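User: For documentation purposes, I need each entry recorded in a consistent format: the amino acid sequence on its own, followed directly by the corresponding structure tokens. There are two entries in this batch. Please keep commentary to a minimum and don't merge the entries.

Assistant: Recorded as requested. Entry 1:
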Amino acid sequence: MTKLLLKILLCLCLSRVTQGRGFKHPFLERASSFGGDEKAYDYIIVGGGTAGCPLAATLSQKFRVLLLERGGSPYGNRNVSYMQNFHISLADTAEQSPAQTFISTDGVINARARVLGGGTCINAGFYTRASSRYVRDAGWNAELVNESYPWVEKQIVHWPDLAPWQQAFKDGLLQAGISPFNGYTYDHLYGTKVGGTIFGKHGFRNTAADLLSAGNPANLQVLLHASVQKILFDKRGRKPAAIGVVFKDENGKLHKVFLSNRFKSEVILSSGAIGTPQLLMLSGVGPETELRRMKIPVVLENNFVGKGMSDNPMNTIFIPTKKPVVQSLIQTVGITKLGSYIEASSGFGQSPDSIQRNHGIMSAEIGQLSTVPPKQRTREAIDAYKELKKDIPYELFRGGFILSKVVGPLSTGHLSLNSTKVDDNPSVTFNYFSHPEDLRRCVKGIKTMEKVAQSKPIKALMEDDEYTISMLLNMSVKANVNFIPKHTNDTQSLEQFCKDTLITIWHYHGGCHVGKVVDSNYRVLGVNNLRVVDGSVFVESPGTNPQATVMMLGRYMGLKLLRERLGKAA
């Protein structure tokens, strides 16, 4: 209890301080406070997210680092800090929300982080490592990987107290044949396990931003509300070389900041799978036809920037329960050999900030216009729907979800610019289920979920044990939120169910693949002094949930760069 009170006091203290000109941390400032045209940095990191924070903390041990984050501070924001408010950040469409909503051309509602700490501030908190096969295929040094994961874990990861729904789900997975039970572990092992979480015992969230406390404050400067507009290049050499960036502060003023003249100084992009390829294009690195279409001067043509975008399809089955269940996010996972991961969540955040607030079609408690064809979803129709549904009591949402995520996936899409404004979402297409193997994996995942739903532990919690699978699937078609026309009575076809109930688990990746946009050390091909360290380099999503590996990658690359530059002195 004492630890919780200390965290709450810290949160309140930071909340008060961050509303003023400066911040409690000596290296945390508003972008408008930057007066450093004369300052130069060994590393400029664009994006203070899941990878950027551990990367900045590590590099600052020996070098001068500037971390530029387009969003604000997570401290003092209850919707970030508390698990019971998990859904509110995702539903909040305000310009300064920690989550920036986007809808892919596939019709799936998605979100990208806009806050210091990145996706760790708005996700479900589950922490689990990538498989040894993944590490090997990525070409990473296994010894350094095994140094980097624990560095993260010791600072911000906890073991969960299993909620009743998670306990029943764990037992249901085992009855469904997803065995053995591997206990509490971070490791990626076939069977059923309980993973780590970044939520503490009382539902208080730790984030990647907390890892900045391991940095050297004398060398580390973090600017919030610093929206990088483009990378600056020196084009006089054989290759263009990154020399700095232009960023806009919270007042709309533009600033230039430059790298030092020290050998191997770099701009490092850690803006995520959406932000990094977008910023490369806005800076003149990308497909020439795309750049000329947007009247962006071409620095380097690379037709692979923004290509190979992937998002793991997720489908769910809703299980109504006899009485409201305790809220739980992801705590337990079934790792199958059938191309799917099975997870679960339950309950609803019974927060004073929660059900009284109307988030319209983005709202987890209200849902979307699933019965209205897409072309008829006018603003007037949406407003009328919101007015009709806004007073629904949370009791109607009692129950839990069983989730299935497709491994990989093999289907890929692309990203293109909608405008030359970095704050605007680019156009993103994931082409879900365009590869037939993804659809086969989804069907196998649905069948596994059905087995779990019919297990004795789940039946014991179910509102009516006479519910048939067909009835549960039909309820689930209505419960899932996307802009895809539904076939409510076609649950006999699991392939159609996969397509109808498609949602995201926010594990999208790609756009800057190794060998196409970056080399094996994540340096941008054809450009000097420019590197990418984030999920845009991934061909597949690591582990069941990627945040552990993305944070590890930030630490890993920081250590690798230190050792390459300093040798034993590192």
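Entry 2:
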Amino acid sequence: MASSLSTMLSQPRIKFPTQYSSFNVRFLSSKLLEVQSTSCRRRRRTSVALRRSSTFSVRNFSQCHSPSKDQIPSLRDFIPKATHTAPASDVQSESMTASLVNRGFQLCNISQFSVLGQIGLSPTRQIGVVDYPWPVMISDVMPRGRIYHETYGCQMNVNDMEIVLSIMKNAGYTESVEVPENAEIIFINTCAIRDNAELKVWQRLNYFWFLKRQWKSNVASGRSQSARPPRVVVLGCMAERLKDKILDADKMVDVVCGPDAYRDLPRLLEEVDYGQKGINTLLSLEETYADINPVRISKNCISAFVSVMRGCNNMCSFCIVPFTRGRERSRPVESIVKEVAELWKEGVKEVTVLGQNVNSYNDTSGVENSDEPAVSWELSDGFSSMCKVKHVGLRFADLLDRLAIEFPEMRFRYTSPHPKDFPDDLLYVMRNRYNICKNIHLPAQSGSSAVLERMRRGYTREAYLDLVKKIRGIIPDIGITSDFICGFCGETEEDHKDTLSLVKTVGYDMAYMFAYSMREKTHAHRKYVDDVPEDVKQRRLTELIEVFRGSTGQCYDAKIGTLQLVLVEGPNKRAPDTELIGKSDRGHRVSFTNLPIPDKVDNNGKRNPKVGDYVEVHITKSTRASLFGEALALTKLSSFYNTSHEEAVAYASRT
């Protein structure tokens, strides 16, 4: 009921079906509706909440203007008139109306109450202050609907879901549930990078369809506790890529919404209430959701994601992202600083800065438009780009530097970058700011120059290795992670061996490795043949994983005997009663025994570490995926690195 009214109130005008054309409907404000009957001379106003099942045909007229606030009657202007005509026995009507308003229900003003039956509103279901003899039940008023959500894919999708929940909360959808069986609205945020990710989504959609199709029997058996069959909403990259297929899937999905259209979700859901399919997958050149304050999903209150740019211009031949996420556009620096400041107030200690190509961040909000092409966009040495930057504003190094200075006790990471956008300025900022984590994700995709050319990556094997050498020369203790694709179009055994040798040469801390999965619309789909057999792809992937495990073990072993600053994230799941776990500056998982240790922050003796503390840990043992050590003391981020710097200077002077 409230949701359908919300939609009508968001429209400047509503047109009734032809048989009710004698009624002219005009909105006075976001909560008041006036219905005028041309056949009636005497008018009276009543407050009533419209029912969700009304059969209005909604039209959007963007040129209509709302009257000023001083012209709009308040709710109290109508309550006395309505209660004046009510029977003496209905003494609770006014308090009931106030209660509904306080609970967030939108009330509207309707002339000629007798019209309600004509336009599809059952009087026995109305709630308000009116002169009718039938009983009024508050339980008849339904909330807008409880939300259940699932997210697949990258960290950007996680952040997108937080944006979606914020938009829905502002539209009145305030309640979430932990299981889909109890939800009236089901959001599934999808990934289209690989075929396996899409298969998982289809499996879940089949189950959600079962919840819809068998809703009555599920409720009767106690399996479901939703108030009505759930609306299923597909979001994200898969929504844009397969919108027609999804909507045609036997009424499986009600709404399909692309990454740039999340603001439209409340309206799309209202269209479903009117018996239509809701779809909006239009890509935007401007949408960044900079003004949206995300609703944090993670129960880990000490870390958060902040999206700073959206889209990608690289057009790698294997990648679907430019077609599902659109072109690059960046948020203004000030909006990012404001969001991070709010996170700091909430107790967040570590922020991961997100973007599809995050280090190509370019805030041009303060740059005057010019037709002259930019000549100062600096790329990594030996790298090229297919996309030319028209205007150069504040770059990623400027953003990181600003965040590091303004929040000295907060740690910053970022993902996912492209190797082409690592100019020297960015590397020196990372070296000079202790609270920018010394970890770089450097996706290689392949170790073969021939394959890299077909992938349209803009660099060769040699250029990539030169960049790694430069990075480690400027930031000696840097951790490097990467992405690899096995079995890309035309990849030979020699190409595969080049990739294996690259992994051994670089020595990655971590890597994401996958067998190639061709995506429609991509350059590879149009120009190349997926000619590497699946069994060969899987064999090469297995070999790559084995080589990686051998090299990454050396990275972890090298940390034995060192002192690491660990941000505590919670109990170690393998020993929740005795151990804590967190991440080091390089992103390594570090666990240690939970014992009282000296508190250097408050200098008040010893205490046990808790979530959100920075702990000095002496590393005593390593595996291929984690470190173990002895907790020495509680400290602050700035204090730890100032002390480390002083000790390094003292050691250098002695030698």
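Summary note for entry 2:
The radius of gyration is 30 Å.
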